[in-house]
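User: Predict the complex with S-adenosylmethionine.
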Amino acid sequence: MSDAQVAGSLTQMICGYWHSQAIYAAAKLGIADLLKNGPRTVDELAAATETKPDFLFRLLRALASLGIFAEQTPRTFGLTPMAELLQSNVPGSQRSLVLMMGEEHYTVWGKLVEILHTGDNAFEKTLGAPIFEWLSQHPEQGQIFDEAMTGIHGRETAAVLAAYDFSQYKQLVDVGGGNGSKIAAILQHHPSLQGVLFDLPHVVDRAAPRLIEAGVADRCELARGSFFEAGGIPAGADAYLMRHIIHDWDDDKSLAILRNCHAAMPIGGKLLLVESVIPPGNGPFATKFLDLTMMLIPGGKERSALEYRTLYEQAGFELTRIVATTTEISVIEGTKR
Ligand SMILES: C[S@@+](CC[C@H](N)C(=O)[O-])C[C@H]1O[C@@H](n2cnc3c(N)ncnc32)[C@H](O)[C@@H]1O
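Assistant: Here is the predicted structure with S-adenosylmethionine placed in the model:
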């Protein structure tokens, strides 16, 4: 790269939030939903969103330069494939993810320098409570969080199903299963498998209709509780899945969850963590930035293979294999000794 290209790339990264905040503004105003029946003029969109037409035009012109919305005739905008994903309630919708990133996460990321000095949890410092407690006190944001997990992690489900055979199990407990979309997809893929969706009570209450819609409610028990409570995790299944759970927590809390899981399982039972395993070296790997979000938001961390092996040994599991997928995430399989 030439010196000018180096400087240009750096400038683009420095100003990266211009893009994310512009996308957030359009998502917050619900512009993509307003365009679902076809293109509309800026004046119509401004009237519907109570915004200034000239300012809204400049927002949409900027986003159209990224391929999000398209100006089809002067001052009339329509959807593009990326803009379609900013609609609510469409398959693959990323609207909740944008809302979460543009609100709580954006505010909390502003504390990064302070937190590097203090080692405190930035979310709690900013919003007054640890994230999962705060979400239980703020149901609207709780629902946005549940949906945002599909926005950020939803595409991993197909990759995991392609890489890992769950048909070897009789019953799979999805610990911290969130909105239920993952256990629903696994049960649809494996018609003889039984499932359990386990999460905090308010999360399971919101997820229940999704299992009915997916046609798997008769094969999926609902279990409400905390994975930090001794005896809280449903006992006796032959496999326990946790996707993006352990990365939310520091080593002490992760060990507490893994030990509670261990206590719930029969000898020989399988623990399946679905997480990214950070490779050594300087190469690009998106999870290295997700790791900073884990540091700031729940107070957790992304880990290397060695770090997972150490946690497994300390909790009484043998790490039997790490199954790669076509995405950055892997299935880290362990067996209860
Ligand atoms: C990062 S989300 C992952 C959700 C889901 N596994 C997925 O991959 O989309 C973490 C999940 O852990 C759940 N959780 C947090 N604290 C919990 C606790 N003490 N007991 C059970 N679940 C908890 C949250 O409600 C949330 O659904």
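The longest helix spans residues 95-109.
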